[in-house]
Structures are given as structure tokens and as C-alpha cells.
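Why do we care about 3D structure at all? Because function follows from shape, and shape follows, mostly, from sequence. That is the central idea of this module. The next example makes it concrete: a single protein chain, its amino acid sequence, and then its structure expressed as C-alpha cells.
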Amino acid sequence: MQGFGFKEDVKDVIIDLTHSHIWDVTSVAMLDSVVNKFQKNGANATVRSLNEAISIMIDKYGVHSRI
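And the structure:
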């Protein structure tokens, strides 16, 4: 999570997973942490370009999409 800048003046964040793959529940938890932290700082965080396998993992184990 050190690679993400959590600044209060950021209003919209897009996390693009076009060239990524989520392999396990730990990866889903990390994505949730990042999205939740942006949201707590007032940013609208959007995750995009999910392939079908990633979407299934996030739907099954993620919590950020339900907030």
C-alpha cells in the first residue's frame, strides 16, 4: 500500500487492473484495504478492467464493492 498516495485533495481514483491478476484471498483483501482507505479519505475509488476470474474472486471475498 506504500505505492498509493492517500491525499485529502484527491477526489477520484481509478485502479486499473488491465494487466493484473488476483490470485488469492490475500490479494482481494489488499485491494479492499486500498479502496477503503481512499474512500475514508473522501475519494471515489473505482476498480476497472476486471477479467471474469478477478470479478468472481472480488464478488466472493471482497467487501469494498458492497460498501
